[in-house]
Write a structure and sequence with these properties.
The protein has about 200 residues and is an alpha+beta fold. It has helices spanning about 25-35, 35-40, 55-70, 115-130, 145-155, 190-195; strands at about 10, 15-20, 75-80, 80-95, 100-105, 135-140, 155-170, 170-180. The protein is built from six helices and eight strands; from the N terminus they run ββαααβββαβαββα.
Length: about 200
């Protein structure tokens, strides 16, 4: 078992747990139903890179292989037991860095209900405790107001601006970079979020 994986985390009606092949139908349906809402923020493969087509099953197999290697934690989000989106801890680096980045997406029908901030908070808390990581980074396109609200609610600080940082929706896109270290949030991200719940 890899340090910090697998794990199931819960806060109220929100659960994060490992993404599995059993999520295929719900995942595909959510992606189909939310295509117009999600495509502007989806990672794409730049021209000339390896663009082999991927099925959901092969995607999950690859993510689980990376999880066993300790480089990725692929989480599904559930609300009241129903698939609602995904949070993935990527690019886990050990050694002197103890660093990772986090990406996420949510079914639009669950947006604006505080689901994603809670899911991301639980995942970051897990990264800082059981997984032993020191720094988490989230990169967001400046135009993505929904994702920006998540990091603002969580109190992550903006640490930089990265021009042409990731290939998103068919082109290299600028990103705002947000980060948090374990020392900056000793009480935990979920505890920090609690005072805001009544305002969501």
């Amino acid at each position: 078992m890899t340090r910090g994986w697998p794990v199931r985390l819960q806060s109220g009606d929100v659960t994060v747990r490992p993404l599995t092949v059993a999520d295929a139908t719900a995942w595909r349906e959510a992606r189909r139903r939310n295509a117009a809402w999600l495509v502007p923020w989806d990672a794409t493969v730049p021209p000339g890179a390896d663009a082999r087509p991927s099925t959901f099953r092969s995607l999950v197999r690859r993510l689980h292989r990376q999880a066993r290697d300790g480089t990725t934690y692929p989480f599904a989000i559930e609300v009241d037991g129903r698939f609602a989106g995904q949070v993935t801890v990527n690019n886990i680096v050990r050694g002197s860095a103890q660093f990772a980045s986090v990406g996420y997406w949510i079914d639009q029908q669950y947006a604006g209900r505080g689901v994603m901030p809670r899911a991301v908070a639980m995942v970051i808390d897990h990264c800082f405790t059981a997984a032993g990581l020191h720094r988490i980074e989230i990169a967001i396109r400046p135009e993505n107001s929904n994702s920006l609200r998540v990091v603002e609610k969580l109190g992550l600080r903006e640490v930089g601006y990265a021009p042409k940082f990731l290939h998103i929706d068919g082109a290299w896109r600028d990103h705002r970079i947000y980060a948090m270290t374990a020392e900056e949030c000793p009480e935990g991200m979920l505890a920090r979020l609690e005072p805001h719940k009544s305002h969501e």
